[in-house]
Amino acid sequence: MKRAIFVAGLLALGMTAAVAESGVVEQRQTLMKQMGGETKTTGGMLRGQEPFDLAKAQAALKTISENAKKAPGLFPESSKATTDKTEALPTIWESKAAFESGFAKLEQDAQAAITSIKDEASFKAEFPKVLQNCGTCHKTFRKS
Questions:
Q1: Is-contact 60 39, C-beta < 8 A?
Q2: Are the beta carbons of 34 and 81 closer than 8 angstroms?
Q3: Percent of the chain at pLDDT above 70?
Q4: Annotated binding-site ranges for heme c
Q5: Where is the signal peptide (predicted)?
Q6: Residues marked as binding?
């Protein structure tokens, strides 16, 4: 009887861990989709397909900055086994310091852009620096 209870407890614990990992994957996917949505809006402004809107640019940068702070915590070592369900490459955990420093740089560049973008000209000069971070990370840490 005690053994059955013990085994049942272990199974429940394992299922709880699997559900928790699934939750962290969903959280990071949501976070990345938010940033992707912001870059679509601002990308349209960069290409002249949408009129420049300082408030939208600032809001996008704020979201990117906030999400860059949250993102590293959503890639715990235990979620490495879930890469078959995501675009995340094992390189994330093999080069964890580089991965985390990429998000730190993204957050830093987004904050710098928030303070320096005042008009369309400064937006077109500064925002591509923020987007460069996205491309660098995707090339190294994300499946194509």
A1: yes
A2: no
A3: 85
A4: 134, 137-138
A5: 1-20
A6: 134, 137-138
Tokens at residue 136, please? 């660098």
Calculate mean pLDDT across residues 72-100: 91
Arithmetic mean of pLDDT over the chain: 88
Partner residues linked to 88 by β-bridges: 142
User: What is the predicted pLDDT for the residue at 4?
Assistant: 58
Count of other CB atoms within 10 angstroms of residue 107: 21
Looking at residue 88, which CATH number applies to its domain?
Answer: 1.20.120.10
Query: How many domains does the chain fold into?
Result: 1
Q: What is the pTM of this model?
A: 0.81
Backbone angles phi, psi at 142, to 5 degrees: -130, 140
Question: Tokens for 41?
Answer: 């809006």
Single out the residue of 54, 64, 47 nearest to residue 103, CA to CA.
64
Angstrom distance (rounded) from CA 86 to CA 99: 16
What confidence category does residue 80 fall into, taking pLDDT thresholds of 50, 70 and 90? Answer: confident
